[in-house]
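Entry 14. Ran structure prediction on the chain below.
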Amino acid sequence: MPKTPQPAKIEAAFFDLDNTLLRGASAFLFAKAAFERKFVNRRELWRFAWQQFKFITRGESAKMLAHIEDRAMSLVVGQSAAALEALVGITWEEYVKAKMWPETVRIAQEHVKNGREVWIVTASPVQMGQYIAKELGLTGALGTILEVKDGLLTGEFEGRPLHGKAKAKAIKKLATERGISLKRSYAYSDSHNDLYMLTKVGHPVAVNPDKTLLRFAKAARWKILDFKKRELKANK
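Output, structure tokens:
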């Protein structure tokens, strides 16, 4: 009896958000929008600003990311889920849109044109990733899920924040659900914390890499894109 032919697996491209698609940390930009709407005081905003400066100059660390994300989540405790959605839209329009890396956005959109699914994979709230994906014409986003009870945000996460190993597990689960071939897929990130995700695909790319990721990418002969250096040269 002949075997039933299996459906051909599709290809995808997975993009980290902070410092890969976006200059800096989306959580800080969210906090800035929250400050403008009096969700947060000036002292909290300056704490975020200091973390943003370290994030840009030194690169991401697990401890720093956890600190930024935890503080960002504390801003919305007791707020309605609808208020979060509205604030995400405001954050995009007023702060995030202007800070997207045009080169990385172009690459993501080229993947779409070439028939691949394109997913943002971020430790930021999934609502932020989904909003940006929609604005850029991408397939969708995987992100940290915030707990909602009776329509209000509790400040807690559902499951674990999407960081490190959690990202790798998330794209493997998505690949199983959607018939994606990870071997034929791509992943883009700036951080060594995303090595778990990058090593799960056949075409990993280091974008604006931190020192640890840069060393690893060179040793593994991965493609390396550094838009920061190009931007510095252009501004001289």
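The chain has ten helices and eight strands. Will compare against last week's run tomorrow.
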